[in-house]
Structures
1.
Amino acid sequence: MSGADEFELIAALASRLDPAQDGLGIGDDAAAWSPTPGALVVATTDMLVEGVHFRLEWTSPRDLGWKSLAVNLSDLAAMGATPGRALISVALLPGQTRLVEEMYEGLSDLARLTGTRVVGGDTVRTSGPLVVNVALIGEAAPDRLLRRDCAAPGEVLVLTGEVGASAAGLALLLEGDRDRLGRPETAPLLTAHHRPMPRLAAGQAIAAMGLRCAIDVSDGVASEAGHLAVASGVAITLEIDRLPLHPAAVALFGEAEARRLALSGGEDYELLFTVPDGRLAEVTAALGGQVRATVVGRVVGLRPGGRVDLLSDGRVIESGQPGYLAF
Amino acid sequence: MSGADEFELIAALASRLDPAQDGLGIGDDAAAWSPTPGALVVATTDMLVEGVHFRLEWTSPRDLGWKSLAVNLSDLAAMGATPGRALISVALLPGQTRLVEEMYEGLSDLARLTGTRVVGGDTVRTSGPLVVNVALIGEAAPDRLLRRDCAAPGEVLVLTGEVGASAAGLALLLEGDRDRLGRPETAPLLTAHHRPMPRLAAGQAIAAMGLRCAIDVSDGVASEAGHLAVASGVAITLEIDRLPLHPAAVALFGEAEARRLALSGGEDYELLFTVPDGRLAEVTAALGGQVRATVVGRVVGLRPGGRVDLLSDGRVIESGQPGYLAF
């Protein structure tokens, strides 16, 4: 056993350890529980490892700090929660003090913008790659928690913002062509990759409207649609021609490649959520002021185990169990 | 700048990032805040790195899991808090799946014993040493939080349990003498090092009695007395002849070396707390049923910046600013 399977096994084991009877959202973007009636605590954690999740040649320490908090905030956004207190752990080599100070500054930039307070942490030595762990604790209204296990037939699938930009930025970095990297039109793609802006306000607005089902796009859109389908036990059609592709990704890579990056690349940190058909106008109006909302698919029926069909031009171009799609 | 200074600088920076106006316990064993009136959330995090905090040649995966949770639980114990929900992050090499599964089992053993629920986490790949981060969230009664900044003149300094065992266990491991390691009298020392039992019940009892000031002994007793002195701005005398040394540490290393290990070795995870002189009998009676409580010193006066004097046989054998003691 190796690769993703190995890690999924461990994640499954961890989540089975001692499921909280009063817990919500186990296996969701974040864990949630009620310490007292009327209060709902939401908590999440993400660990970033140098060489696996970031490269110091590509990422400034300040951007690393921003992103390490952003990925956690995005999990809270997907639950409709508000930040929050953060605990930051860092394992660093001797000599990386200044680097870590700059990292904290970038983290602090996003903390201030989002009302997150850094209340503690741990700073330890290592002999290996830099490791940053953020644990983030937020709150949600008890009857307003967004989950991934409640998509229902008759709902449409809606995506915030634009997708493909972060994966396009990563593709440029992997390509390593300094001329292309220096061109002004690449800047939004690199920013999308290095300094994603979690959709906290959109998540809270979605929750406040009484919608129930959302996930953040940390993997590609196809994969996240698959997570919704599996958790909810539904079949989803994803109309790939309707994906709101980032124009800079289309300009630099062409539409087909930009679509592939959006479907399978990930790290866009947009929200993918479901809306009863009749409430679509209300939702787009409510979100319209702050973020574009695009219908990208539909929940077509119950389907134990989940299923996602990718549609292009009205035809199914690929379908199957989530996790096995070529995209 | 190198060594401890470097890390203290970063820790100080992190804690200054954006101090919460409604926060308590910044710079304490754990952070605490009130999400709603009448509720107090307490949170802490610790990161353990292979080769720095543990060695896989010495520590079984099961013990590693136990200890990674125990050190966090001890921080909650020192605040008088109850666990709690835990988020576990692990960075592992390919091929370490079974090891990490066993680690989770050890962690789960202690979680069950202490009423801690593992509600989430992150499992990621690394190319370097194994890294385990635990973030732990607990609760405390708002008027019953133990802190390190409120030791007052006229109070005596009390220590739970016995000290020196964990450092003696580590000394045996460093020594690497297989004959000595195999002897039955070393077992309690190795257990103390690998599977410390956080003093949660004692911490809660101390808090319930209305006492206010405590710290856990993660560093040596002299160092922890120093932390209390600095945070509270008091002078403390520590009567080193009164330290409750673990008998196995004395038997194997002699009394003088066992005392040195207790003062400077650390990782005993006992509680060091202060008691108004007149309430000592009440406290020892209340704790007597579950844990030994020994008077080891006294808060002798106010002292901005803090001070600790080590006393032996009634004479000061060493004194000065905490952090500069040879012990």
2.
Amino acid sequence: MSSKFPNTRVRRHPERGRYDPETIYGIIDEAWHCHVAAVRDNLPVVIPTLHVRIDDQLYIHGAVAAGLFKDMGRETPISVAITHLDGLVLARSLYNHSANYRSVVIFGIAREVVDADEKMAVFHALADRIALGRWEDARIPNDIEVRTTRVFAIPLDQASAKIRSGPPADDPEDMDRATWAGVLPLRATYSTPIADPQQVPAIPLPDYLTRLVTPDA
Amino acid sequence: MSSKFPNTRVRRHPERGRYDPETIYGIIDEAWHCHVAAVRDNLPVVIPTLHVRIDDQLYIHGAVAAGLFKDMGRETPISVAITHLDGLVLARSLYNHSANYRSVVIFGIAREVVDADEKMAVFHALADRIALGRWEDARIPNDIEVRTTRVFAIPLDQASAKIRSGPPADDPEDMDRATWAGVLPLRATYSTPIADPQQVPAIPLPDYLTRLVTPDA
């Protein structure tokens, strides 16, 4: 473990900090995308990208030519944040307005994955992440595609989660105010799948995707 | 304009780049939260936070004691990313799987706002951002609350947007494959507001919030 990285303990609202892998992995696995920050010419750069977790490693990938990835060496210090915004918290005072959220912040050295088998395992995990069944259904990457995609692994041993949930926390002197207080919950939902208009002949949505987009069915 | 910052032109998929304020501001204004990256001890740090835009400035705020904000000086180089994930793009080949998204990446010097009136204008904008009517309904910040909240302004003159939309782009040789291809749209939606259980007497959800959570009503 690198000792150069900052302490991963949550400093502000320490009661919101969580450090167990189950919580951290759960937040990571539920998210489709993350935000990756690196230092370029002594300045910070942050971009969104897709990710997948395998065991205690987070994997991100991008085209060889892509902005941030183009600049990353074999070992690059990065920070990654993954955030689920679960709701707006409306308090009686504006000062105590907040958000309900579950976030993970990761520090680590991103190691470029150069082994073709490890790369392929990441692509397989990315397909499984969409839905079990996608790997078997779609065409798997060929040698050129594997070579032109850069994959980076970040160990998850310097990660922390921060969670806020529940109602607003107002000051006692504001409790009698006639202001509606509570939570406006937010969540990401699927809407109706849109088949590629070029899809000929019409191929029905496979079961593994139907289950994904209608989780209550 | 600082010339030290990287070129904000989109390098990978340049056809997805947008530089007009209307597009950039629209993406910023629709989002509740952003990811802010800074450099600390030569290492990148990224955290989620809430934001609001006023004209050509992005404002972020946090408690004086909060992690990243505690470390930020009066002028700190930062990068901010705001991302809407609009859908998963499922291609016939795994390599061409993608995401539909609208993102903005901003580079700039975060300037600490120390003027109480400018700070109050930001708090007002944050309340209006939730819904017009919230500022008049809730208790506005008092002097101590204004002092213990740090606010930073980032100019939006070095920002770029990147947008992907539409169906998958498969290679010609994959087009006849019997794999379902298309888009699984994602969107953030409100669910039923949850009143604070301590709310006494029962206060009905005000009209300005009812309109927010039921936009189609």
